[in-house]
Specification:
heterodimer; A: 111 residues; mainly beta; 4-stranded antiparallel sheet; B: mainly beta
């Protein structure tokens, strides 16, 4: 599994855009980049997944440069309810594979 | 939207006692998982389960742990003789076989296990 590095914490204010960068220098050819979100006392929740370039859904955007050695999760116009831990995971896509969570990035949104 | 459910939400037990944590995965999912998260620490994989057998297990999942799918809906985690260090939040997750191209795992709300 590719090792990932992301900031431990980030602070933001309501309405701002939050960008979390994850480094994964040893990403393999068949690895995908997946982000999960976890609110306090809840299970992780899938946010977005990508392989290269840009992926956007109703929650976030994921930017992946051509070398794929890093990725950036972008949360547009955050609100207080976006306060959570965000995890970057890198691995091959398949059923029946374990998710390896790191410490994640704690994003705190203030009013 | 379908969701994974877990019961109980909180279980308190004495050291050495057996506990069974229950999960109802999403109905058309075929892959099931247990993870745990000790307070303030990261989410750790315990075991994956498919076709009525364990697919993979971590070092944490020793002989004190077992999983079972006793019927078509429930998925259970049993800890035979609990230890203080088993105190954690236990999350059940499930995923579809093929339809979900993201191979997304859906997590339940967790069961907080407190061993005294």
């Amino acid at each position: 599994l590719a090792k990932t590095t992301q900031p431990i914490s980030m602070d933001s204010y309501e309405g701002q855009e939050v960008n979390i960068t994850c480094s994964h220098n040893n990403i393999a050819t068949n690895d995908y980049i997946t982000w999960y979100q976890q609110f306090p006392s809840q299970g992780p929740r899938f946010i977005i997944q990508g392989y290269k370039t840009k992926v956007t859904n109703e929650v976030a955007s994921l930017f992946i440069p051509a070398d794929r050695k890093s990725s950036t999760l972008s949360l547009p116009r955050v609100s207080l309810s976006d306060t959570a831990v965000y995890y970057c995971l890198v691995g091959a896509r398949s059923n029946d594979y374990k998710l390896s969570f790191g410490a994640g990035t704690t994003v705190t949104v203030r009013a | 939207e379908p969701e994974v459910t877990q019961t109980p939400s909180h279980q308190v037990t004495q050291m050495g006692q057996e506990v069974i944590l229950r999960c109802v995965p999403i109905s058309n999912h075929l892959y099931f998982y247990w993870y745990r998260q000790i307070l303030g620490q990261k989410v750790e994989f315990l075991v994956s389960f498919y076709n009525n057998e364990i697919s993979e297990k971590s070092e944490i999942f020793d002989d004190q742990f077992s999983v079972e799918r006793p019927d078509g809906s429930n998925f259970t985690l049993k800890i035979r003789s609990t230890k203080l260090e088993d105190s954690a939040m236990y999350f059940c997750a499930s995923s579809e076989r093929e339809a979900n191209s993201n191979y997304e795992q859906y997590f339940g709300p967790g069961t907080r296990l407190t061993v005294t």
